[in-house]
Amino acid sequence: MKRIKTNLLLSVAAAALLIFSQSMQAQTSTRNALRTVIIDAGHGGRDPGARGLISTEAEVALSIALKLGKELEKEFPDTKFIYTRTDDKLPRGVTDPNVANRVRAEMANEAKGDLFISIHLNAAGQKAGGWYAKKIVGYKNRVVYTGTGKRRRKKTIKQPIYESYYVKNTRIGTETYIWAADRSEAKSEFIKDSQEGGEDEPVDDPNNILDLNSPEARIRAQLYTKYFFRNSALLAQLVEEEFAKQGRKSFGVKQRNHKGIWVLQATGMPSILVETGFISNKEEEEYLVSEEGQQEVVQNILTAFRRYKQELETPRATSATTKAQ
Questions:
Q1: What is the sign, positive or negative, of the torsion defined by CA atoms of 247, 234, 174, 97?
Q2: What is the pTM of this model?
């Protein structure tokens, strides 16, 4: 009996999600699905992020984010693009890096964003470029004495001979993060708040105000969470596909499932965090710092954005095309 009830609840939830998704697709197919997009350059100010040999993550992420925004504004004039920062400062004059990402999420939610794109650079955890290590290449005899007085004895031991050698930091590649599906409840809380008084729901109508603590509000937040997860995963996959087409090594789409990744957890909209490459690798850092490299990264994300927008606005017409690509 318990299994029957569980299956029934799962079926109802699945049906509700399907109906909700179809409803959302029907709405977006008749209008601009991405009216407001947040572009976030990671780190900044007192928070340089990962350090390379010739640059910092904050510097390169800002340069790529601004170039991306410029290209998006040019191609999609009907979409409003909001930047969390446009210079080497933390958002809204924040001085504490520990709260900066919460502020970024707040900015996105206040703007009623339809999408959040965060630009970052990765690091392998070791020293940028490479480091020196030691290895044993042989042994030599060494005389030591043990004991004292009459018990003092001479002893020959083998002492290792070490040689230093350079270890190159070879980790390269891209990966794009989304908020984990198994942590949907944490994101639902922020989605519930961000959906209050949406553009299609005038708050001056007393009959249209939804109690955010009601079961209906929680259910709706959960449906939005699933819908946003699906769209986040879709865009993340498209971004990684474009990187791979460019010849970049792609580690695919990853899920972040621990709290504190505020730009993914606390944004009430589909959100992705793009690791555009490893600043800790000498060659990849040089690529990401170069004008050519940054333009290629921008074009990859721009193409993915274009495909994503088309999928949202004409889902039936493009679904077969997307699968074939």
A1: positive
A2: 0.76
Mean pLDDT across 196-205 = 39
Which residues lie below 8 Å from residue 1, measured CB to CB, with a gap of 6+? none
Residues 6+ apart with CB under 8 A from 244: 250
Let me know the angle formed at the C-alpha of 246 by 240 and 249, rounded to the nearest 5 degrees.
60
Angle 145-150-153 from CA coordinates, rounded to 5°: 25
Tokens 């009216």 correspond to 35
Helices vs. strands in the chain: H and E counts, helices first: 9, 8
pLDDT tens digits, one per residue of 220-257: 556 666 888 899 999 999 999 999 999 999 999 998 77
Report the DSSP beta bridge partners of residue 130.
168
Cβ(38)–Cβ(108) under 8 Å?
A: yes
Q: Could you give the CA distance from residue 9 to residue 314 in angstroms, rounded to a whole number? A: 31
pLDDT score of 91? 92
Cα of 10 vs its chain's centroid, Å: 30
- Determine the Cα–Cα distance for residues 255 and 237; give it in Å rounded to an integer: 12
Distance of alpha carbon 308 from the chain centroid: 16
130: left (phi over 0), alpha (psi -120 to 50) or beta: left
